Amino acid sequence: SRVRGFIPVSTISGSPWAGHVRLYSVSASNPTAIFRGDAIKLYPADTAGTFGGELLVPVRAAAAGDAVVGVCVGPLVDRSILATETPGYLPASTAGFVLVAVGQDVIYEVQEDNIGNDLASTDVLHVGNLVAGAGSTTTGMSGHVLDSSDVRANTTGHQFLLWSLSARVDNAIGTNGKWLVRINNSQIKLGQ
């Protein structure tokens, strides 16, 4: 088991993820820390921040069932907030900025939670939600995992679509399986 949240690895077209991100603000009223690999939601009720004269939409870490805009790939380093540099997360109740991989075409790798049942090959192209586990203040990595007991077919409101098992030498279907997913319940769908 090596929980790291959602890690961007490629795109639906098969090309590698090129590292494209957007900068978002985080208000001091945000009650939870934001870690690398956390699923992120737009949260316009918070105060927007500005960076280089640009007004930035505020965000928070997503919870199970929330529509998602993307995944945090790291905080913008602010030397006055030590945790943003090492180990690389934005503490709770701290105003700052995070870099987010955005887009419904991005494929992420995530570990299943193994609570209730293990996922199977028949779960490919089914949908599921995340479990917002606590991130690590030692590594800066997310505690988000895929809820293996809530994966089902034909449910449009679930957060992620299972794309396939991650093809790695150290991975297999079963306990602690790593899966490739894409955002299913997106806050930036076309036509909204």
Describe this structure in words.
The chain is built from no helices and 16 strands. The chain has 192 residues and is mainly beta. It starts with 6 loop residues before the first strand and ends in a 9-residue tail after the last strand.
List the defining traits of the structure above:
five-stranded antiparallel sheet; mainly beta; single chain; 192 residues
Give a short summary of the structure.
With 192 residues, the protein is mostly beta strands. 0% of the residues lie in helices and 35% in strands.
Q: What's the number of helices?
A: 0
Strands of the largest sheet, in order across it? 1-11-16-15-12
- Tell me the radius of gyration: 16 Å
Number of strands: 16
Helices and strands, with pairings:
Elements: E1 7-11, E2 22-26, E3 34-35, E4 39-42, E5 49-51, E6 54-56, E7 59-61, E8 70-75, E9 89-90, E10 96-102, E11 106-111, E12 127-128, E13 130-133, E14 143-146, E15 160-165, E16 178-183
Antiparallel strand pairs: 1-11, 2-10, 3-9, 4-7, 4-8, 5-6, 8-10, 11-16, 12-15, 13-14, 15-16
